[in-house]
Write a structure and sequence with these properties.
The complex is a heterodimer of chains A (about 1050) and B (about 180). Chain A is of the alpha/beta class and about 1050 residues long. Chain A contains 33 helices and 23 strands. The longest helix of chain B has 9 residues, at about 10-20. Classes of the chains: A alpha/beta (about 1050), B alpha+beta (about 180).
Chain lengths: ~1050, ~180
């Protein structure tokens, strides 16, 4: 080989010593000197590390050392054996700080020596570079290893002394072992054609081993010749006809097992196809810009359902794991947290790639790279990188929830990915940044999340099966129907029993009649018996004389007796039927309770969402606050839990924005710099109690009064109790803020919470202490599916009263009615209770023509009070299945639901404590016109979102609803045009490119409609060219925003464009 | 309880079977071959054949105490509780012959709702409809939910958004005295 130069000055294009050494390594590899290649690479790495050591003079100290190295390399080329030791001694120099262990130095020495022993044949002349220029560095490395293996096999064969059988067998055995390793390596590299040939050659060596006495020079020549071909093939394995070299000669009849031509052709075809695809895969280049497709959560059309189920099961766990680890890092965690986060990211990446969820796969891929860099460089992320990781963790959790159907895709996913990409690219180029300008990086310490605890969480997860929510609902409904039918069957059995009893009575009567008839017949007989008896020769007293009447009457009596026995049998059967039905009902109730359990979810499930909401609000307001949740292990209905998330998020936002002071004010008040917000979940019987406490400034009563007076709710100076003043904040659109922000000020927070809780049949209580904080107590009834109820008559209605709250039931005779201070009261057991009538509670007109006492009195306990409720009469008591009244009937105060009775009739199921706690007004007060005015009363601005992308629509909808707007959505311009007159929005958010009618056409249409010419239109699009912008402006849009759009920017723009009175 | 099923055009039968249970999709359009027409008093309403519907005759309606006058009560329809709305009250239409009233159920399962209709539904061929009527003269309650009107042989038939109407009628709030 000519042209090999190794002095610094001879290679003007490689002034850098690292580049020089890498070049020397490449040259060595081309020559097949793989030991020398490794030595050059080791030295290059050492030089790279030394550069980072500021104390080491790279220019002054390194140059003479490198000059000496290049001399050694030259010497090695001429005399490998002598130079090998010198090379090893050189690399052992302490100033190089090469971290190789002794056995590693020994291996390197062996490698260097192995080349010295091998006879190097000049490679066939090739045009162009030795390694195909299309082979990536990774591919070259694989091939270098295979070439090294070829050298080893050659060495084994060349050591064979043909005259010595022992040497022959030993050499062939060694060659066979080396060929097997070569086979495995070729398979691992994906070169299955080469591996197939290698297996064929191995088989030939095996045959030669069996017939070791007949090994000839020709056999050795064939084997060594094949090795030459392999060495020629490997560096150019992806080129068009490289495989021909490899298969040439395999069909030579001198082989113990020559390869058939068909097999040769087949292998050649395989080699050609592999070479173009397998190794020639360049290392992926990290993109610099995030694309919309990179954050897509769309599932492939051929997604494997089982894999998807597995992913959906694992997602919450691993995203939470990742989130906790990065939060620990931000709070001063250590290396273990980096490892935990990297493992979680790796797992998520793998799972997402398997299923095909690109958004998660791409984000976790780059996150993993960043964390690997942290681990490799043994550095912890600084504040800026830590914040980016936390944002990414939040984004991953949002994506997880979107895939689980619990929320919209995170709208800032692309921005988050862009930030991570920026970090990853920066780390690729410059490594992890130093901590200049930031808080000092935490030393890699032992202060970290307990990995064992995290691992325990994963290991204790029991086997689970995902079942569609619809299936559970269906099972629930079927079990409910089963209970209802069982009830109907029991009712039928009761009626049958009553009929059987009636029948028995009839049979008894029949028997009595029969006996009576017998007596009459006997009597009649006696009077006519003497004439008959004299003729027969017997006296009437000696022989009974029978006629047909006797027979019939006797038969009738017997029939009545038989019927009575049958009746007794029927009774027994009915008893058994009753027992079976009771057992069946027990099983049905058990089944329903078991199904009910599947709907239960721990409160901990929503904890990450609440924490995320707190973090977002803290970021927006610049305040610090901790959220402490208790009762996380409480199991409650999953639907109810999801319904409570929004109200709790509202409460959290309000607490942080209005209640928690900033750090300076808190310091002045002597409070810790970080605010405290605690949410306790407690179950009290059939009620869920949520207590939300903050340690902020409490309600500003003066500001509330001022706002109320300004709105005309209160007259100036009008006295109002503090509790009533506090409840003013629950009114729609009530706010003490004069300036709206994204967090609050629009007055839609607490009234929305109140409305949601009331809709659930719950209550909300406020308690505020100025300067110390506020407590909000929500009481929400837990969903009931089955309850014991009293069936009562009230007026013309028959209703079921749930047993909830009913402490005692009394007959009217047990109580005394009195009037005390114009209030009806009942005296029971010496105690007096306020009394009311059920028909008055329900505003049912009095049906009685004359007053008479009610039939029963129910003593109802609620909120530490007790009230006596008078009902007309109690018909029955039973277990009832509570059913909903359909999608269209909203929550009716005082009603839990309705039920189907045994006779198929439907009756309402009442909640007496709720009726007593929040009395309802008579329905006549609600006029039909109020339905039309309903929407007019609400002054929440309505925004029409127009976008053909479902995920984009949902994301915008979620953002705007959370910000307090009413939102309607349309899929394209045509649908938007149809919706405009109905919805009458205050603003339109539209995409540009949509089917049927694009955003520009829609805007032009709006501008041509009378009454809508001033309707604000914002366009959000990925088209950023001036041409598109101009077209949109000419059509009449008010704002043109290019994606990705920050939430804050969009909300600011909307606020600026909305008319002032909205 | 007697149930009468309205025969549908065969070409829509499969589409009807596949429709979701709610009443929201597919308001009648000019492209549809036929639509159902129901009468509430003197007013006619159109119902798309793509909506699952049935007629109930002599089905007991169970009233609920202290509810709006337009909510007649609930019926037990094969184990599902279906609210019954009396649109005669909403539209201030007279009930001409109470014995001729039947229940017309739209939708299935939890998304079902029933209205009282006079007589039986009829099948209208939408191709015969001619002009749209001016809706501005309608009472406000109709204007809010009516999507359009068609005239045929002197009879006006309205296209109505039943889903929104039922939601509005069913979600009337009765406030407690605690928040006056």
């Amino acid at each position: 080989m000519t042209g090999f130069t190794s002095t610094l000055s001879a290679i003007p294009w490689a002034p850098d010593p690292v580049s020089l050494l890498e070049h020397l390594a490449d040259q060595s590899a081309k020559e097949g000197r793989f030991g020398l290649q490794d030595a050059n690479l080791i030295l290059a790495e050492a030089v790279r590390e030394l550069r980072l050591d500021q104390d080491f003079d790279v220019g002054g100290g390194m140059a003479p050392m490198l000059a000496a190295w290049s001399d050694l390399v030259e010497k090695y080329r001429s005399d490998c054996r002598q130079a090998t030791k010198a090379i090893i001694d050189y690399l052992r120099r302490p100033e190089l700080k090469i971290p190789l262990a002794e056995d590693e130095f020994s291996d390197l020495e062996l490698q260097l020596c192995a080349h010295a022993d091998a006879e190097i044949r000049p490679l066939p002349a090739v045009t162009g570079p030795e390694f195909s220029e299309y082979l990536s560095p990774v591919a070259q490395e694989i091939i270098a290893l295979l070439l090294l293996q070829c050298q080893r096999i050659r060495s084994s064969l060349r050591d064979i002394a043909k005259d010595e059988n022992g040497s022959v067998r030993g050499g062939l055995r060694q060659a066979e072992e080396d060929l097997e390793r070569f086979f495995n390596a070729a398979n691992t590299a994906g070169l299955t054609g080469l591996a197939q040939i290698c297996a064929h050659v191995t088989a030939n060596v095996g045959r030669l081993l069996e017939q070791s006495d007949s090994l000839t020079d020709a056999h050795l020549e064939l084997l060594l010749g094949w090795l030459d071909q392999a060495q020629a093939y490997l560096p150019a394995c992806n080129e068009a006809d490289a495989g021909q070299l490899l298969v040439a000669g395999l069909a030579d009849p001198q082989w113990p097992l020559p390869m058939p031509f068909e097999a040769v052709a087949e292998i050649l075809r395989k080699i050609r196809s592999e070479g173009a695809t397998v190794i020639n895969d360049p290392a992926p280049v990290r993109p610099e810009t995030a694309a919309e497709a990179d954050v897509s959560l769309d599932l492939p059309s051929d997604v494997n359902p089982e894999l998807l189920d597995l992913l959906l099961q694992e997602l919450p766990l691993h995203t939470q794991q990742f989130s906790e680890a990065v939060q620990h890092l931000q709070a001063g965690g250590g290396e273990d947290d980096v490892n935990i986060a990297q493992r979680a990211a790796h797992t998520l990446k793998g799972s997402a790639n398997t299923v095909g969820v690109k958004g998660i796969a791409v984000l976790t891929h780059h996150l993993e790279d960043i964390l690997i860099a942290c681990a490799r460089e043994q550095k912890l992320p600084g504040r800026a990188l830590g914040n980016a990781l936390i944002n990414a963790a939040d984004c991953l959790e949002g994506m997880s929830e979107a895939l689980l159907g619990l929320g919209a895709p995170p709208p800032d996913a692309k921005a988050v990915l862009q930030a991570i990409l920026d970090w990853a690219n920066r780390i690729d180029q410059d490594g992890l940044p130093a901590s200049s300008g930031e808080e000092p990086l935490a030393e890699a310490s032992t202060v970290s999340a307990d990995p064992a605890a995290v691992i325990d969480k994963t290991e204790t997860q029991s086997a689970a099966v995902r079942v569609a929510a619809g299936q559970i609902e269906k099972l629930f409904r079927l079990s409910g129907e089963s209970i209802i039918l069982n009830g109907q069957a029991q009712e039928s059995a009761r009626r049958l029993r009553r009929q059987a009893q009636t029948m028995r009575m009839q049979f008894t009567m029949l028997r009595q009649l029969g006996e009576e008839l017998e007596r009459l017949i006997d009597l009649k007989d006696l009077t006519g018996r003497a004439a008959v008896a004299a003729d027969a020769g017997f006296d009437a007293l000696e022989m009974d004389q029978y006629n047909e009447l006797h027979t019939v009457s006797r038969r009738m009596a017997e029939a009545a007796l038989d019927a009575r026995e049958i009746g007794q049998d029927i009774d027994q059967e009915l008893d058994q039927l009753g027992a079976v039905l009771e057992d069946q009902q027990l099983y049905a109730v058990d089944a329903q309770e078991t199904i009910m359990q599947t709907r239960l979810a721990p409160v901990a499930l929503i904890a990450p969402r609440l924490q995320r909401g707190l973090r977002q609000t803290c970021r927006l307001t610049g305040k610090a606050c901790d959220l402490i949740l208790t009762g996380e292990n409480l199991l409650i209905d999953g639907d109810l839990l999801n319904t409570l998330v929004d109200p709790l998020l509202h409460i959290i936002r309000n607490a942080v924005d209005h209640g928690i002071e900033n750090a300076e004010d808190r310091a002045v008040s002597g409070k810790p710099s970080t605010g405290q917000l605690a949410i306790d979940f407690v179950q009290e019987g059939h009620t869920l109690l949520l207590r939300c406490r903050d340690d902020g400034r409490g309600l500003d009563h003066a500001a509330i009064r001022a706002a109320a007076e300004k709105r005309g709710i209160l007259a100036p100076g009008q006295p109002l109790a503090e509790a009533e003043l506090q409840r003013l904040i629950l009114r729609p659109n009530f706010s003490t803020r004069t300036v709206t922000t994204q967090t609050s000020g629009r007055g839609v927070g607490m009234d929305a919470v109140y409305a949601r809780i009331v809709a659930l049949g719950g209550t909300m209580a406020l308690a505020s202490e100025t300067g110390r904080g506020m407590t909000i107590e929500l009481r929400v009834p837990l969903p009931l599916s089955l309850t014991h109820a009293l069936l009562v008559n009230v007026g013309r209605f028959r209703v079921a009263i749930a047993g909830k709250g009913i402490a005692q039931i009394h007959h009217r005779g047990d109580c005394e009615r009195i009037v005390e201070e114009h209030e009806d009261r009942i005296v029971l057991g010496g105690k007096s209770y306020p009394a009311t009538r059920l028909d008055r509670l329900l505003h049912i007109p009095e049906q009685r023509t004359q007053a008479r006492p009610h039939g029963a009195v129910l003593l109802v306990e609620y909120e530490e009070k007790a009230t006596a409720v008078l009902v007309d009469s109690i018909i029955d008591t039973m277990d009832v299945v509570i059913k909903g009244m359909g999608t269209y009937i909203g929550k009716i105060p005082g009603f839990i639901g309705a039920t189907i009775l045994g006779d198929g009739a439907v009756t309402a199921v009442l909640d007496l404590p709720e009726l007593l706690r929040a009395p309802v007004r008579p329905i006549e007060a609600v006029a039909l016109a109020s339905i039309v005015r309903e929407e007019a009363d609400s002054v929440l601005p309505t925004i029409l979102v127009v976008d053909d992308s479902l995920s984009q629509r949902r994301a915008l909808e979620q953002l705007l609803v959370d910000a307090g707007y009413k939102v309607r959505a349309a899929r394209d311009g045509i649908e938007a045009v149809e919706l405009l007159p109905q919805v009458n929005p205050q603003l339109v958010l539209t995409d540009l490119e949509m089917p049927r009618m694009n955003g520009i056409e829609l805007t032009a249409h709006i501008r041509n409609q009378p009454g809508q010419t001033r309707l604000p239109v914002i366009m959000i699009t990925s088209r950023t060219t001036q041409k598109h912008r101009q077209m949109a402006e000419e059509a009449g849009i008010d704002a043109y925003l290019a994606k990705p759009v920050r939430d804050d920017d969009l909300l600011d723009k909307i606020m600026n464009l909305l008319p002032e009175n909205t | 309880m007697k149930t009468e099923f309205i025969p549908v055009d065969d070409s829509n039968a499969l589409a009807s079977a596949r429709q979701p249970t709610g009443v929201h999709p597919a308001l009648p359009s000019a492209q549809e071959k036929c639509v159902f027409g129901i009468r509430i008093g003197a007013i006619g309403f159109l119902v798309s054949p793509s909506i699952y519907c049935e007629v109930l005759d002599k089905t007991p309606v169970n009233p609920l105490p202290n509810t709006a006058p337009w909510l007649s009560g609930l019926v037990n329809l094969r184990g599902n509780l279906v609210p019954v709305f009396d649109l005669h009250v909403v539209l201030s239409e007279e009930v001409v012959n109470p014995k001729n009233r039947r229940l017309f159920v739209l939708g299935r399962g939890d998304d079902a709702a029933a209205v009282w209709i006079d007589g039986l539904p009829v099948i209208k061929s939408s191709g015969l409809f001619q002009t749209e009527t001016d809706l501005s003269a309608l009472p406000i309650i109709q204007r809010r939910f009516v999507m359009g009107g068609y005239e045929q042989d002197g009879q006006i038939w309205f296209n109505i958004n039943f889903e929104d109407l039922f939601k509005a009628l069913g979600h009337q709030h009765v406030l407690g005295d605690s928040l006056a």
